Amino acid sequence: MSKESKISLNFNPVQYKERTVIVDILRGFALFGVLFTNLYALTTTIPALNLSTVTDTGLDKLTNALVQLFFIHKFLTLFSLLFGYGFGIFIERLTSKGITPNQFIIRRMAILFLLGLLHTCFWWGEILSTYALCGIFLLFLRKLQPKHLLTFGLILIFIAAPFFQYIDIVWFTDENTVKQSVFLNYLQTISNASLHGIIKINYVMSNTLYMHYSCILRDGFQILGKFLIGFYILKQGYLKNPESHLDKIKLCWKISLIAGLLYVIVKSLYLFHFYTINDNIIQSIVYLLNNIGILSLSLFYATSLMLLFLKNPKLIIFIWLRNVGILSLTNYLSQTVFYFFIFTGIGFGLLGKMHLYMIIPLTLAIFSLEIIISKYWLKYYIYGPMEWIWRQLTYRKHLKIRKQKAEDIVTRN
Q: Could you count the other beta carbons within 10 Å of the beta carbon of residue 357?
């Protein structure tokens, strides 16, 4: 038996009671917003050729403003912070047992990357492959002191990412023409009931929207920066022992509320055409200010939920969100199944035909199903199906999935 095999045998998932409840709740909450945002993207991206087709009613316009102001990038930012947090937990558990994390982490991220590539077949906006690549870089930054994690993370988000946004604006000025052609092709292909065509066009969409170097670096620095901040939050113990950091959590809540409100006011004026932005440098500065507002609102959501949880932890909504959050990978991927059957010709074929306001009842219906399924799945099983597969491949050993008694163990990222 190899040395690594022996290590794998001695390295097991932690017990269910050791999971950090608020982290699971925040994951579930983030998934709700990711679902809402992705439905918005699918409903508006293609009709962007003529956006009025889906936003011609007052309710459509209200929905558009709601998503733009309070959802786009905010919940994905929270999801990214929590991924960095979970990544840090995995590294700390390895190092606490005297295990060098490199092989485990690289294998774990390689599996996630392959899963992301497979996911792209059905959803061009998938994020797992990018998370996997950024996770590899996080491995080499894990020894930074907490203050350096925070500083470097903020530099990546507020300096590096805006710089490459400027490069993207200046150097890829002809992108809109290319995108319009691809969008038309996507609309025609998705409307037909051809699985091969759907898979192919999703990769074309992903390549067109994201696969030039300035965009890759911009988004990569954004995500890695959020991972580092999530790792910082872990090292400071803000989520593990929130009661001990209540003053700092309340201070963060106040600051993020003020910054978030300023962002909402300025963004609202832009959405309702009180001003326009044409200069390239100004656009990059606005991108920077957007990043500040997005991170502020994400932290405001998180700290608000934390303070509410500390005040009344037995609210039923926390149980619902926690169940969804425990199965975060499975629920994230299962959302794509709904997208597939709602929008493609294999299913209902509603791409480009559905009013924007319809994403509100759709989000509530899909997320309610995830709450119900998560509850009953966790009643009988230790892991979600995708969590189970991912962890077995990571640990390179069989892990039982069916519960036999109350103290059965479950995994934590």
A: 20
HSE at residue 136, side-chain half, CA atoms within 13 A, is 14
Contact in structure between 51 and 44 (CB atoms under 8 Å): yes
Q: Report helix angle 102-120 to 385-395, nearest 10.
A: 140
Residues 86/23, Cβ–Cβ less than 8 Å: yes
**Rounded distance, CA 231 to CA 413, Å?**
12
- Give the span between the Cα atoms of 391 and 247, in whole angstroms: 37
Q: Give, to the nearest 10 degrees, the angle between helix 213-236 and helix 146-155.
A: 150
Q: 381 φ, ψ to 5°?
A: -125, 150
Instruction: Kindly tell me if the per-residue pLDDT of 411 is higher than 80.
Output: no
Burial-class residue 121 by CB neighbours within 10 Å (0-12, 13-18, 19+): middle
Tell me 50's DSSP state: G
Q: What separation in angstroms does the CA of 64 have from each of 56, 290, 298, 367, 411?
A: 11, 17, 19, 20, 38
CA-to-CA dists, residue 76 to 65, 234, 403, angstroms: 18, 18, 32
Contact partners, residue 181, CB within 8 Å, separation at least 6? none
Are 13 and 411 contacting, i.e. CB atoms less than 8 angstroms apart? yes
- The pTM score is 0.91
Cα(22)–Cα(145) distance, integer angstroms: 24
Write the DSSP assignment of 326-354 as a string of letters.
HTHHHHHHHHHHHHHHHHSTTTT--TTTS
Give the pLDDT confidence of 363-374 residue by residue, as tens digits. Answer: 999 999 999 999
pLDDT digits (tens, 9 = 90+) for 150-178: 999 999 999 999 988 888 777 765 555 56
pLDDT tens for 244-266 read: 999 999 999 999 999 999 999 99
